[in-house]
Amino acid sequence: MEKKEEAKNLFDLGVKEYKLDNFELSTEYFKKALSLLPDNIGLLENLSLSLYNQNKFLDAIKILKKTIDLESENQKAFDLLQKIYKELNEKKQLEQIIIERKNKKKLTLKDEISSKIYFPNFFNSKEENKLYRDKLDQNLNDILKNDNIKLDVSKEYILPPIFQLSYDEYDNLKINEKIVSVYRHIYPKLNEDIKLIKNNTDKIRIGFISEFFTDHTISKLYRGIIESLDRSKFEIIIFHSYRTRKGNYFKKILEMEVNGNIKNIFLTKNFNEKIQTIINNKLDILFYPDIHMSFDLYFLSYLRLAKFQINSWGHPETTGNKSIDYFLSSKLCEIETAQNHYTEKLILSNYLPMYFYRPEIDESIKLEKNILSQRNMYCCPQTLIKLHPDFDEIIKKILIKDKKAKIFLLKDPKNILSNSIFNRIKKKIGINIDRFVFLDRINRQKYINHCGQASVLLDPIYFGAGNSFHESMYYGTPTVTLPSNYLKSRIVKGAYDQMKISNPPVTKTVDEYVDLSIEIANMDKKKALDQKKYLSHQASKYLFENKKFISELENILIKITSFKN
Asked: Three-state DSSP class for 441?
């Protein structure tokens, strides 16, 4: 009895520290409690979570496997084990535990479907990427043929693979349409007809819905629109996820409500309550900045919750979903036949579709001229999921041709993709690996300085820069880009066109990309400074805080709703 009591006290202390995010201390308490009760399931579950939150994945896996050995039906342990293997891109181990669980008849229908829809976010080669795409496509076909799969979307959520599918060279229209068909097939709720409530006011009621109206790229891309729309014409409602983090911009949005500029609504976790809350606000337009980025809000886009529903380039690909009427893009970024890439009707603005505030830097840390004119410093300050295996060839050629080159990237939060990409590239470039550097993550002002001190910025192929390009224009460091036919790789080109740059560093081949990057990185110091100054000036004049786009967008929204009655 004394042993159980002591273990209980240690467990309670561990839980207390865990809730305070003191994971090292909670781990110590759980381990001490387990020394008294080594087979206690609750202790094992909590210890694995503490280890996971410290990125001690191998230790967490060991504990989770022990938990499942002791209690084969333990769904919590199995869910976390799956999550870890997915994050680590341990594809074979993930497949193995699915097979084992299925053989033991412990695999739920939800987990079985989830395993079929799974798509990794890292590949060692383009051939491996293609293999998984083909496998996914076949699995989607198999699911559609099975009429016995019916799940509850509010309780049996299966993460869609659309986000991960975007980071390669393929047109994703057909597969995105198929994914939408699969989800409509397995979740009957997504096919319901919703009775809308009419807006009887003179103003256009527009709802912006996102998990990321906080300190996030999405708020940087869209806050200017929200703050600039004419309040005499538009009534604005912001729908937040229960998962939205409470950052600085989130606080500003709350302050805007106090000033009467907007209305904030916090959606609950319950799917049906989300639907009813949105309907009750009698929207003319529901605007999704970033469909595919939030698993909490994604399935709402399958339903018609406003008369007109618009998607845009927070995640720059078609949804494949006929419930979304329009996709807001730009003439500067799309090819002539771009409509063929979308299920939505394409709205093409004359400008990049945003009102982006000029970045600010504390004067005390502003870069000096000698830092701005460094040579041979190549930076690719992008989310690492964008680094396709084909981009490795660009890195390899730069390091071979420019013997003084150093290439800098930023680590991901858990250092998983960093390690995977480093190992993948090391096999290709060998002794040059010491000139390929991953830097620790940095805050926004240091990030802008990092872009400023670079000789040249490298835009990833297939899925390029957006927000980062705009922030880099504080100092004007040139970005070399190689656009494809799809929006996701054409934003830098579009920005240069809006900036009225007559001979921008936009290339057509890998070799041209490499040679131009090297030319810029080895430029005469005075010429390099002049170029950065010029690009920064053009950005200030044409790219930042573009009021012409706001006027254009207002006319677009008015035109869309002109037949709302």
From this structure: coil
Angstrom CA distances, 59 to 52, 169, 175, stand at 8, 37, 37
- The Cα–Cα gap between 360 and 365 comes to 11
Q: In what order do the strands lie in the sheet with 345-349?
A: 263-266, 234-240, 204-210, 285-288, 308-311, 326-330, 345-349
At 63, is the pLDDT very low, low, confident or very high (cuts 50, 70, 90)? very high
Neighbours of 196 (CB within 10 A): 15
Q: In whole angstroms, give the CA distance from residue 75 to residue 81.
A: 10
Contact 226, 210 (CB under 8 A): no
Q: How far apart are CA 401 and CA 403, in angstroms?
A: 6
Return the structure tokens found at 85.
Answer: 């293997």
Q: CA-CA distance, 137 to 333, in Å (whole number)?
A: 29
Distance CA 234, CA 204 (A): 5
pLDDT digits (tens, 9 = 90+) for 370-407: 899 999 999 999 999 999 999 999 999 999 999 999 99
Q: Please report, for residues 26, 35, 64, 181, 198, the alpha-carbon distance to residue 15 in angstroms, rounded to integers and kept in the order given.
A: 7, 17, 18, 42, 48
Burial 278-288 (b: 16+ CB within 10 A, else e): bbebbbbbbbb
Would you mind telling me the total number of residues written for the chain in this entry?
565
The amino acid present at 425, given as its one-letter code, is I
Task: Sheet with 456-458: list strands edge to edge.
Answer: 436-439, 406-410, 377-380, 456-458, 479-480
Q: What is the CA radius of gyration of the chain?
A: 25
Nearest to 65 by CA among 78, 83, 84, 46: 78
Determine how many CB atoms are found less than 10 A away from the CB of residue 202: 8
Q: Which is nearest to 517 in space by CA: 374, 377, 330?
A: 377
Contact (Cβ atoms closer than 8 angstroms) between residue 300 and residue 192: no
